[in-house]
Amino acid sequence: MPTDSFNEHSVVCDKTAFKYYRTPPRYLGACPAPPLFEPDPRYRKLRTAPLITEVLGLPLHVLTDDVKKRSHGETLRFHVIDPELRLGHTRETVHGFRLASPELTLFTLSRTLTFNQLVMAMYEMCGRFTLYEPTQRLEAELVMRNASELFDGWSRVVSESGKPTSLWSRPPLVSLAELKDFASEIEGTRGARLFSRAVDCVSGMTASPLEAQLSMLLWMSPNLGGWGYRNIQNNCHIKLSKSAGLLTDMHSAEVDLRVLSPDGTQEWMLECQGKAIHDRVGAGTRDALRATALQSMGLNVTMVTSSQIHDQDKFAVLLDMLSGKLGIPFPDKTGRQIIAENNLRADIFGDWLALSNEPTPAELKARRLNNRARREHGQAPKR
Asked: What is the pTM of this model?
């Protein structure tokens, strides 16, 4: 098959695949398939296809197994990868071309994202949330089709003022176990060590960026900017007593983060109170009732706000509380570890939506140097 064209055999990856996965099915369904089966000199028809102009953008990142076809063109950008890595890791799309699986997409993203950003992308794809902002043209198309509220398993989160946000709730795209299996499968491949280290920085499935940010700060090692405490559980299901269930009209409750003492004999529940996903109409009341129900069972619950996580002084108070209540020995950080935390915070509290943006040449060079510096000495990567 020709690898220098975009056709039904093409497998999109990297930023292109990430954008495709971020797009709610209702918007993808509003875009016709791009021209794949007809001559298209200089990609004129491809460049003006609605799926490209409204969703994927340019360049399109495409896999190839031919080193000679590696390119950095304005329309197509080919990424060389061992064809064996594709086996079982591509998916069909409704638009005719193929799509790298979530785990293969993340692996190709490891070449263009910083390490912290790669971990963020992993939390997103393993989690029950994504970030997406439709174009005005695409939004108008859905309104015309009366498909804005189409049930596709995705729901747009609104702010407490009722305004739609860029945050969406949807089922997880890949599990942490699947990422770990893929990391084992690609062992020895160039970039596998970095990918595996990033997977190790994911604590579990989260339901919002705020939960992911809190988890990264607690879970990641001090050398990477976190606090290195791993006795935590994300979105833990707690069976409610009969009386507690009366408060919530449910038999169980899902706690955002369960923190256990080092010996596992004590626990503390943390409930995240974000400005979007938790503060929308009615959510605050439900969160308060759930916390009351858990407290009625003798469980300790602390509400954690976005401000408490963003502000380092306020976050230190939260760590002191957990340390005092659960006996957690949080470390005294070195100068380098403090710098690492500042860098981590700059990434996770930055524009999460911009993860799918194309980097400038200067940003791409800086990211490659950043990731190269994180690789352990003695690695002998192979293509």
From this structure: 0.92
